[in-house]
Amino acid sequence: MTKRFHVLLAVFVLITTVLAGCGGGNGNNSSPAASGSSTNTASVSPTPSASGEKAKLTIGSWRTEDREAYEKIIAAYNATNPNVEIVFNPSKNTEYNTILNTALQTGEGPDIIQLRPYAAGRQLADAGFLEPLDGQIKGLDTFSKDTLAAATGTDGKVYGVPTVYSSTQVFYNVKIFKENNIEVPKTWDDMIKAAETLKAKGITPFAFGSKEGWLLSLTHGALAPQFYGGSDFATKVLSGETNFQSEGYVSSLQMMKDLTPYFPENYEGLGMDDIRNLFVTEQAGMFVMGDWELAVMQKANPALELGVFPVPGKDGKATVTTWVDGSFAVNAKSKNKAEALKFVEFMTTKEFGTLVVNELKKPSTLQGVTATDPIVSQLSEYANTIATPYASVVYFNQGNPTTKSVLETNLQAMYLGSLTPKQVADEVQKSADTWLKK
Amino acid sequence: MKRSWIHLFPVPALAFYVLFIVYPIFAAFGYSFFDWQGLKRGAFIGLDNFVTLFTVEPFNDLFWNALKNNVFYFVLEMIAQNGIAFVLAYILYTKIKGAQWFKIAFFLPRLLSVIVVGFLWKLILNPNFGVLNVVLKKAGLGEWAQPWLGDPSTALVSIILVNSWFGIGFAVLILLAGLQGIPNEIVEAAKLDGVRGFRLIRTIIIPMMMQSITIITVFTFIQAFEAFELVYAMQGSQGEPYHSTDTLAVYFYRTAFGGNSGGDGLAIGLGSALAVVMFFIIAALSAAYLNFVRSKEVEH
């Protein structure tokens, strides 16, 4: 009997861990709401520099690749503000939200938070985890309302300083294009012809993989506006004038499927690292990718001759797809709030903007900042002249699961042959229906 | 009754247990009855989260899909991990040369972190430069080469087999301990009576080591129904591709904490409801199984 009792006991202890794992992180459930109401009245604590000790700030981010760049930016800030020690502490892109949410719930987390744009960031602001910035820092008026919208809470207050745009466009290998006498495509058909030529030469036309869902919504977000008509379509979906089952949107999904012959072998099993390797090791000619990969690719293969072109026009003009990425917010529970606010204020200055374009190689949200890298300048110019919004992030990143992730999962199913483009469109519409009508 | 103070000794350990295990369980039970706006707790909504979980698309489809994958996980692990583990344990039991060395070798993968195991096998199974496909192509079996982790028909099987590779040493140890616990005179007596080979295993060995088999079965069951780390390490929080490797725990994690890179909404209430359902599934099935095998065990 005792043996059996011990087995039962062991079993009980094991199964309890399921629930313990769930409940553990949520212990302080009532505090976020409480802190939300108290932030406005709480006086900002003075920095401990009086005692000769440096104030310490941590920055949370999903940009593990940017560590060096941010360390340079921090060093530049320290040149005029020596009394503060700032640590840039990023976590993996796909895990950042979870790590951050769990930390915030227990009343911790970094002092300065890189905020996901739009709905996801708003959720943190609405839960009271963030310090409102209006009136607390200078320089917010340099940004347009549209740009600030990426970090504005439901209450209309601004919770983050938007620092960079993200944009998706087509990168290409200049050497491969030259060797095969391919011109930079001016129309959609030119691009398909270029892909044909590359394929005939045994070079993978597009570095692409469907193993990670976000790559699917990203590629679709870049190419599809040429088929469904960009932001016009998104506003019409929101107002109910049209929907995802419309001809334009379905044809954009069909286009994704029609590109299959130009994808690498076994693309169903390739993730981001695999396809980046294909492109930087010069085995693929084109790469529909975000600007943030530019620095990573240049570092991975300095000899790579990189070029960039906007997604060529199907019927109209060429476009790049953009959204505000990387706003920086201050944790309402930060122990060094004054110093944290001072640092995000620095992020509204031209000095910071110049550091951003040259170190992060991303288009700055601050106007009139020029970059030393010609490709970054080109990206910046595209982002300011021929941009269309990334609909999945800007408009359709709502619902549970989000319409964006429904699109990703179902596109994956389309590539695996279990769904037709029409069925994908139906699923996306079904997901949008769960929150659009509210 | 003089030494009743001795009963106070377990109190510190019990306090930790209550604080970190028992309290969170009841907290999770509590959360599942509330409406959550992101991280903020809203109104008490009774069983609404459970109703959503079982009746609203896509939550109900995802639940049954994940549960089906968990069941498959358990069945395949019983065959691939424990079946092979029994054969290995029996070979070691017959005292072959170097049994000690083999025991250590089988157990070695267990010393690696699951994340390391996941990363390692992701490299091995990479469709274009992974060792497995390269070897297949070199051996002239190119058409067998597959995007193992990218194809829904092979992804879950691949992960379960990796997990079996990881866990087989532990199963061997438990089963070997069971084999070695069988009194020698019983086996000798059976052999004298002319019982040999498979019949010896079926009629003497297995009934005599039923307790070890029960333990490893229950361990495998719980482990299969809590499967998370390896799926997460190799296929991410979406159970990619197309939810074909989704398990209840991964689904729970994604629902409660929002696992998507773009920032899925959090649904702590729904996630807690899912955890509660998982708890009851595992507890009920474990108890039922233990009850069932009670009759099969031989006391000695």
UniProtKB/TrEMBL annotation, chain A:
Residues 30-43 have a biased composition (Low complexity). InterPro entries: Bact_solute-bd_prot1, SBP. The keyword Acetylation does not apply. Residues 30-56 are annotated as: Disordered. Pfam families: SBP_bac_1. Keywords: Signal. Residues 1-20 form the signal peptide. It comes from the Bacteria. This is Sugar ABC transporter substrate-binding protein.
From TrEMBL, chain B:
Keywords: Cell membrane, Membrane, Transmembrane, Transmembrane helix, Transport. PROSITE patterns: ABC_TM1. It is found in: Cell membrane. Its main location: membrane. The chain crosses the membrane at residues 12-34, 71-92, 104-124, 155-179, 200-225, 266-290. It is a multi-pass membrane protein. It holds the Pfam family BPD_transp_1. CDD domains: TM_PBP2. InterPro entries: MetI-like (IPR000515), MetI-like_sf (IPR035906), UgpAE/MalFG_permease (IPR050809). The keyword Cell membrane applies. Residues 67-289 form the ABC transmembrane type-1 domain. Belongs to the binding-protein-dependent transport system permease family. This is ABC transporter permease. It comes from Cohnella kolymensis.
